[in-house]
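Example 3.2
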Amino acid sequence: MLNLIPKPVSILPTQGEFILSGSTIIQTDISNEKVKSLAQYLSMQLQSAMGGQIVVKDLDQTTDKITLELDHDASLGDEGYELVITTDEIRLRANQPVGLFYAIQTLLQMVPPHLSGTVNLPAVSIHDTPRFIWRGAMLDVARHFFCVEDVKRYIDLIAHYKMNRLHLHLSDDQGWRIEIKSWPKLAEFGGKTQVGGQSGGYYTQDQYKEIVDHARSRYVMIIPEIDTPGHTNAALASYPELNESEEAPNLYEGTEVGFSTLSIDHAVTYQFLDDVVRELAEMTPSPYIHIGGDEARSTPEEDYKKFIKRIQEIVISHGKQTIGWGEIGGAELLPGTIAQQWVGATYQDAKKQGAKIILSPANKTYLDMKYDASTPLGLDWAGLISVKDSYDWEPGSYMSELEESDILGIEAPLWSETLITIKDIEYLAFPRMLSMAELAWSPKGGDWEEFRQRLGAHGKQMEAKDINFYKSPEIDWN
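Structure, written as tokens:
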């Protein structure tokens, strides 16, 4: 029952067991709305697994209880937790509600799916804190569009494994996916298509806020990306004045990149960007806006440098912090800007300017790469990434000239050229997402063989969640 992913910092087995049953109650300080909400969330999750009602009550002195409590323990930090199981009680303790949420995820992994009656949980003391603050996934909704419910499901699945960032790639050559009220044709026209020519779609601002609110309830931060100055054909087709020629290109349904660019010298470009960033900032509680900056092959180098500085200033003016793909290191970076490494060594230029780095090496973290040559979905330009490949690397020393202190964390992108449904997403993301989760959370020095055994025990849990995961032959699935 202790095949936990990500692996906690400390697991100390003790004597005895706790019998979890329909008579077990959840108790907490119900005057704290966030903690009360977490208690109700745990109750619903246990009811789903056990088929019986688990009552939430205010604090009392009874036994046969699950207790959620906030405490002040410096060793736990903001996201850490303690989970102690004795014969009388399960106690979840943390400094912040997010720590209790992660304690709940650990407890839920210990409860076998589809129970009826009771389950005996071994007595144990778990003390756990994350290695990296940035434990992210990225979902490309531009090349193929995915509805609100699909995105919310993805949030639920990654949050269960203690991932805390979802980077939404909201615009590209193939489609613009977010309503901008001051520039309505971006979504209404630019969102009409996607790769392969099927009808596209976009999120209204209310729908985007629904995604953000759901993510916050799962302690996941939404990071919106508007890719610039390249990857902009959908915007150029919607508003030709953003193009150097002031002529509208056709909407695009292919997968090649590097051919589009915003006009760098037109004043309207920066009015457009200011309006887009302003509206995004108003809808987004997180402190970050991702500006893209990758593969801008049609933007002359000096224009690119001028543009990157200017858009950082726009992001800052709206109270946000800039993130960009690694190429932005070739331009002047303003204080606080973050670079996301994905290919090559462009991150080194960003590091020299004092930027923190998010690791997304394509040959390890890109979930859209095929598992092997026979995988029906995905691409292979960065190589084939087996489950072992996705796990068996050390983030703190993987990139040359990069110390662990330079690294904010890990993010696993999932580009959608070949993906149409949520089941397609699940197939490529799982089980490799569990590798990403463990690398981002657990202490360094993980062992593939030991992880492989724990992962095998998660097959039934993923099946219970109806995840369309890839049953890798590398794993002995239980």
